[in-house]
């Protein structure tokens, strides 16, 4: 039994794939199935250690970006994508998997088109309210389409879609308790704000936090995931701002990238989370934490804004648009939520109600079902 996973090479594509692969491993062991051979096709291995730990072999594919505006890069990326399709055809044919699972993104396009040409069954998962271009295209011939938001059903044929929710690694579903404060060396009785900017960080959120930092740290402590490329600038800026105030400096913790353990401990310590409107929304919901969502303004199909308001409609979060993001607005909204036990409780309950557990197992069982039926036909 052979399974190929493919995605765009970001954390939003990579980690759901890992959670599904882990579920496949658990189910295969429970059902005493032959251990499947699993492969990950993408432009980057993203986290080679996790691939190794889960017995997933990495195959590099090249894919250019399909821009909506004129750029000379469109021409060079066309050649890159064409070369990626040729290589993917060779590698997919060599493996000849029983099923291909696509998570979306430009990096998945060569593998999906190779699977389409070779008539290999395809399953895709869409994390947003508005599907990306690759998933919208792949949904026309995919055998099954799994969705995180019910709002996305209008883009696919209803008979082959299912709202499964977002696949999450099981370790993330268990945020730490009081040990989170000890892990991050935080005060137990001071409210903690966790800022998540996604795998690449969020520059506008980072800047807003820096602008608000002196006032913010008078009443709260902050764990700030900045993105690897931003960490040096943020450390220099925060050190400059807090230079003469060691007490406030102790209340601010910044890190470019959060490991699984870092995130579990931060989630356990957090009273409120500030985040972009990507797949992190589902992690926040699984933790049952109040949140302020600041969507990216120029996302494809405006999907981040739509994700944010879909989540806020459940009562679990408040939305601040980037155009309204000022230190005063941010601090006022934080204070309004944290100072009101009634608002906090409502948001916590709404977050828990929004989250749909078990997406990893639902998708894993569908993948295994198709793979086993494919083997039987052969």
Word description of this protein:
The protein contains 15 helices and 13 strands. With 378 residues, the chain is of the alpha/beta class. The chain has 2 domains: 2-167 and 358-377, Glycogen Phosphorylase B (Rossmann fold); 171-354, 3-Layer(aba) Sandwich (Rossmann fold), CATH 3.40.50.2000. The termini are close together.
**Low-confidence spans:** none
Q: How much strand?
A: 5-15%
Total beta strands = 13
Q: What value does the average pLDDT take?
A: 93
- The CATH topology assignment of the largest domain is Rossmann fold
- Identify the CATH homologous superfamily of the largest domain: Glycogen Phosphorylase B
- Name of the CATH class of the largest domain: Alpha Beta
Helix coverage percent of residues? 40-55%
Radius of gyration: 21 Å
- Count of DSSP H/I helices: 15
Biggest beta-sheet profile: 7 strands, parallel
Shape: globular
Secondary-structure class: alpha/beta
User: How would you write the strand order of the largest sheet?
Assistant: 3-2-1-4-5-6-7
Distance between the termini: 11 Å
Q: What is the ordering of alpha helices and beta strands?
A: EHEHEHEHEHEEHEHEHHEHEHEHEHHH
Which architecture name of the largest domain does CATH use? Answer: 3-Layer(aba) Sandwich
Number of domains: 2
Features:
2 domains, Rossmann fold, alpha/beta, 378 residues, globular, 7-stranded parallel beta sheet, 6-stranded parallel beta sheet
How is the secondary structure organized here?
Elements: E1 2-6, H1 11-30, E2 37-42, H2 48-53, E3 56-60, H3 72-95, E4 99-102, H4 109-117, E5 122-126, H5 133-138, E6 144-147, E7 161-163, H6 179-184, E8 192-196, H7 203-219, E9 221-225, H8 231-241, H9 246-250, E10 252-255, H10 260-269, E11 272-275, H11 280-287, E12 291-293, H12 303-312, E13 317-319, H13 327-338, H14 341-354, H15 359-377
Parallel strand pairs: 1-2, 1-4, 2-3, 4-5, 5-6, 6-7, 8-9, 8-11, 9-10, 11-12, 12-13
Helix pairs in contact: 1-15, 3-4, 7-8, 7-13, 11-14
